[in-house]
Amino acid sequence: MTTATTRQGWGTTLRPRAKVLPEHARAHHRSMVLQQLFHEGPVSRADLARATGLTRVTVSDLVSSLVADGLVAELGVRTEGRVGKPANLVGLRTDAFRIVAVDLADDERMHGAVLDLAGQVVERRSAPHGSTGQAGVDALVAFCRSLVEAATEPVLGVGIGSPGVVDGGGRVAQAPNRGWYDVPLADVVGAALGVPVHVANDANTAVLGELTFGGGEGSGLMVLTVGEGVGAGIVLDGALVQGHRDAAGEIGHVTVVDERDDHGTAPLGRALPCACGRTGCLETVLSVPALRRRVAGLDRAGADAALAAVGRRLGIVLAPVVSALNLSEVVLSGPAELLDGPLRDAALAAVRERTMPVISDDLSLRMTSLGEEGALAGAAVLVLSGQLGVT
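-> structure tokens emitted (391 positions)
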């Protein structure tokens, strides 16, 4: 098993940066076999060779290695009738290992789970996220340790979805709401637990979960996470968009209330300070704490109108993004009682008012199909991708 400091990213580069060595090719072929078994279920070695384009000798060698590692099992002869010699099936041992997944997007608590390799939750826990800064890191380490200790099978790795800008090595460059700046979170947690740890932006983990387990369309998908803050994960043509300095999707810190223009008379009110140090960011009106404050004490009609005002402003922000990237789906992840209904409807209407019909006529703006499990499923994908090459 690899160490906590060895991790593999997702997506592809336009050209190789170094010489491709034989061990790199073998690792890629291993991932191809695991990917096929993960998505298609038990198959024969001949089926694997046809699906991956690898030779039967190569597939047989890889399967033998995976069986020895405990990741794949021989399942016996195929039962359905086919012409010729019956084929022996092999399948992924989804129950032989565990993944620990942690979601830090909530404004009050850390949410975590122990899952099998198929993404099924075995045990679920939550805990207060602690304070900010080092105290928050210490609370996270303790929470992850409790989940690892609860696992009844070997832990393949830990996946963490964190707010803020996170680089490919699991270092949190900045997460203002948590007071984390230049924190090597993957290395810190990995050293404390002794297992591989993978950390990514919580919105990026959510979009990976939606793509892998939620039926999301990989040609143009955005998942907007709404919790203590607001972020977006984007997949285009099957690849995660990370952007310059790993900051793609930081839509929560786009200014949407500017008192220099509207003097605070717009439905959203005056510009409020944001954790990033500026004022009037989308996060100050769309985050869960902000939405709760906005509807507090209002009757149903008043609350619906207040949420619709926020939704309209969200749609105005989304319109150029949807148009520039030609997205087919925008998925909202967060409390359905706040996001689903007037807010979502107003956002979709505003996007359609401001984009060409060819862009938005068939745009889907929906709630996540994974419910509260979306972010945890995405954190599990970090481990599947980093340790097995499976997405």
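The first helix runs from residue 22 to 40.
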